[in-house]
Amino acid sequence: MGELQAIDMEVFKFAMEEILKQNKKKINYKIVVEESEFKCNSCGKDFSMSEVKKKSEEEKENIHFIPEMVKAFVKCPKCKSIDFEIIKGRGVSLGYE
Amino acid sequence: MNNLRIDPREAIIKDRMIAVKNICLVSGFKGGIGKSLISVAVALGLADKGIKVGLLDLDITSSTDHIILGADKLYPKEDMGLLPPEFEKIKFMSFQFFSQSCPLGFRGNSISNAIKELLCVTVWGELDFLIIDMPPGFSDTTMDVIKLFDKFSVIAVSTPSPLSKKILENSVKVYKDMKIGILFVENMAQKAKINSIRFDPKIDKALGDVKKIKRTQFYKDALKIVSKIEGGGV
Question: Is the CB of residue B51 less than 8 Å from the CB of residue B227?
């Protein structure tokens, strides 16, 4: 689960349990939060959310709805560019064994 | 451990748009030719006729529809998705609500992702028309819209400038090949003609005030476009 999605884990777990119940399935699952990772297109620095100024609740909510909005509120901590790629931390992926 | 990256967004978007009867792109391929003003005027004109209309500003990095409408203090409400705020009987959605007017340094993949995310969360409900204000050029946004929507029509805007006309001619070939309905509109025209909107120097002073916009020559001319698309002329 991408960090930028800022999904409420309790709500997600509840929905997951309901789906499993409705489908009469029993599985073991683990939710892992994928930390954000950005790469500056200007100076090449790799950085994450933990290295930038803490975001306000309003900014966090905007990023929750549209993760790309992180580009409105985050700058490269080294060169202050707004031109960076989101390498990790958005979307949802599923791993299985 | 096998890793499967799932992307259900395109399926969700189709579901979200199911009750939208007509999608109309206001496209123009050159900047500064009045696409946003025409998008807003068409949406206002349709809403005045009691038609259920939505307005989506997809000019992501240079959104201006909220400025034209004077609707910059709006924010969507959350209810099983995001409900576009209603302004002047128009369901209005814009990236500006989320970017808080901060500059957006978007490249290709970010544009596609942002459009998909916005369309995934937006609950339009029942609409007769969704007017989409497109960015200039045959850009990432245009290609995403073509990919995401099964059916749409185009209001193709140009000005009397030969540059604007030439680039439009080249670009609409793509839509013609796809058999998409196109209504050609000349903005900033010197004289009144069919499908034209005359140059109106007073429009700039009306920005941000819908009542003033509706009193302009620009708006009165734009209503001809409204009658055309309402009657299925695109």
Answer: no
Distance CA(B225)–CA(B234), nearest Å, equals: 10
Question: How far apart are alpha carbons B177 and A94 in whole angstroms?
Answer: 39
The answer to whether A67 contacts chain B (CB < 8 Å) is yes
Residues of chain A with Cβ-Cβ distance to B120 below 8 Å are: none
pTM metric for this prediction: 0.92
Phi-psi region of A91 (alpha: psi -120 to 50; beta: other; left: phi over 0): left
Report in angstroms the alpha-carbon separations of A16 from A22, A25, A65, B59: 10, 11, 20, 36
Q: In the 8-state DSSP scheme, what is residue B38?
A: H
Summarize the confidence of residues B149-174 as an average pLDDT: 89
Is the CB of residue B106 less than 8 Å away from at least one CB of chain A? yes
For residues B134 and B27, is the Cβ–Cβ distance under 8 A? yes
- Between CA B71 and CA B79, with CA B76 as vertex, the angle to 5 degrees is 155
The shortest C-alpha distance from B61 to chain A (Å) reads 10
- Among B150, B182, B188, B152, smallest CA distance to B169 is for B182
> What number of CA atoms fall less than 13 Å from residue B72's CA on the CB side?
11
DSSP A69: G
Tokens standing for B111? 């544009």
Distance from CA of A23 to the nearest CA of B (A): 19
pLDDT digits (tens, 9 = 90+) for A27-68: 888 999 999 999 999 999 999 999 998 889 999 999 999 999
- Complex-level ipTM: 0.86
